[in-house]
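Handout, tutorial session.
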Amino acid sequence: MTDQIGRARLDGDGVYLGLDVIDPAELQEGDVEVPADCDLAAGKYRWDGKTFLPIMSQFAGASPPAAAPVSAEVALAGLIAALKQAKTPLPAATERWYAAFKNTIDGAGQ
């Protein structure tokens, strides 16, 4: 008895519809071999000629990541200001960066 392999069932657009478990000798040119226990969800992946890629429309309606309310530089400057107010000693490079940042548009009011 030979080991069985999987052959992907694809629609005309390359969308994965499932698999057929077959003998290796049944595999024909143009068939896409997959593991016999392939667990890809039908209708959720598309074959691009090299690999299966998720169909992005399945994520439609998902919320994009929210933008940060402030830039990392503004947040860092706020942290440095709080440390300075608490009289925490800061490295010289941090002091130089903070002094330069306060002269930028984003740093105005720091």
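The second record follows below. Compare its token runs with those of the first.
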Amino acid sequence: MAKGISEQEAEKYLKGSYINELEQALETNDKLFKRKSKYYYRALMFILMAALPYLVCLAFYFSKDNKTQKIEIVNPQKIAIFDTNVHIMAHSNLSVTTTTTTKVPGFLV
């Protein structure tokens, strides 16, 4: 009769190899899970940082008062004098003409 391992020892070896394969698969899955979770966490942070300026703008938009501010003219006489001075200057026949020439390399004038 040939010597070999008994059935009980064979079952132990099979169980041990099966457990070893499961542990390797578990380690691989754990590494992948950690890698994916880092990736998605970084993607979420990137999205939140990219959306932050838009959220700030929306906050300013919604917190803004929609009431029109009323302006009170304190001294209308000074404005009338200024307006007549501008009107007189606009209708005067004084004109100023300025010319500027620049020398560009490669072009003859």
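Points raised in discussion: The CA atoms of residues 48 and 55 lie 10 Å apart.
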